[in-house]
Amino acid sequence: MERPGDDGPQLPGPSLWPVGFAVGIVCLLVGLIVSWPVAAIGAVIAAVFGFLWAREVTTGRQPAVAPDEAAAPETDGAPSMPADQGEDAMTSPEPGERFPRNKFLEGATLGLGALIGAIVTLPAVAAALVPGFVKQKPPGVDLGPVDNFEEGKYYVATFERNFKEGYISRMSAFIRNNGSEDGKPSFTCISNRCVHLGCPVQSGGPVFDGQKKTVKTPHGPIDLIPALPAAGFICPCHGGSYDQEGNRIAGPPVRALNRFEFSIVDGRLVLGGMFAVSKVDGSGASAKIHKYELAGPGQHVDGPEAWFYPLQPPH
Ligand code: FES
Description:
With 315 residues, the chain is an alpha+beta fold. Helices cover 28% and strands 26% of the residues. The protein is built from five helices and 13 strands. The strands form three sheets. A five-stranded antiparallel beta sheet has the order 4-3-2-7-6, with no helix packed on it. Strands 1, 11, 12 and 13 form a four-stranded antiparallel beta sheet that branches. Helix 1 runs antiparallel to helix 2. The longest helix is centred in the middle third of the chain and has 33 residues. The chain is elongated and about 95 Å long. The chain binds FE2/S2 (inorganic) cluster. FE2/S2 (inorganic) cluster binds next to loops.
C-alpha cells in the first residue's frame, strides 16, 4: 500500500512464478528418467511459469531507494551529496539512454555469469546425457548362406554378437526360414534371452546336436544346430514359457521374446539389431509382429504398465 507522498517505485511483491518454474524443472528431470509424457508435462509447466516469471521481471517495477532514505538529513555537520544526485546517476537513464546504468550492470553481470556457467556445464551435461538418446547400432552378424536354413525348420544359431568384443558377446538365436511372402524372403529370428530376467531360454523339444554345422563367416565361426521346439521355448529359471512364435504363454515374463532384424546380403542371412515384441499374431511369413524399440527384461512395452517403466539405456 502506498503511503501519502510516497510516489516512488516500490519493491515487487513475492511471486509464485519461480516456484512453478522450479516444479516444472523437477518434473522434467524426473520425466527424463521415468517416462516421456511426464517429461513433456514438466517442460510445459517450466515454459509457462518461466515465461510468466520473465514477463514479471522485465515489466515489473524495480527496487529503489526508499523515500525516507532519500530524504535523510546530513549527519555530523558534514555536507553530503544530495540523495538524488548519486542515486539518480545509477537509477535514471541519461538523456539519450534507454536504460539506467545500474540496470545495464545488473544485466551484464547476470548475462556473463550465465554464459560462463553454460560454457562450463553444457558440454559435461551433453556428454553424460546424449549417448542415452542416440541409437547405437550394433554391427550386423553374418550367419552364412541362406541355403543352410532348411525351410520350416528351426536352428539354434550361436555366434559372437560383436566380433570386436569377442567371446563375451557370444549369444544364441532361434532361426527359422519361413520361405517367402510376396517374393520377399522371410525368416523368424528370435532371441534366446528370456524377457523376464534374461536367462537363456531353451527349445521345448529335441535339439539335434549330432547335426551341428559350423559355418565360417567373416565374423568368425557360427554354430547351427537343428531343433524341434514342438512345445515352444522354455526358460529354466522361473518357468517362463513361450510358443513357437515367441509369444509368452505362461510364467513371469511380461511380453513375447525379442527378435532380430535381418537382411539377405549376397545370398547370406545377416542379423541386424534386436527389437522388443509385445505379441505376434499368426505365424511364419504371414505373422503380424507387434514391434517396439528394444526394452529391458521385465519391461512392458505396451499398455498402461509401459508408462511406469523408466527409459532404458541403449543396448
Ligand atoms: S528369467 Fe526366464 S522366467 Fe525368469
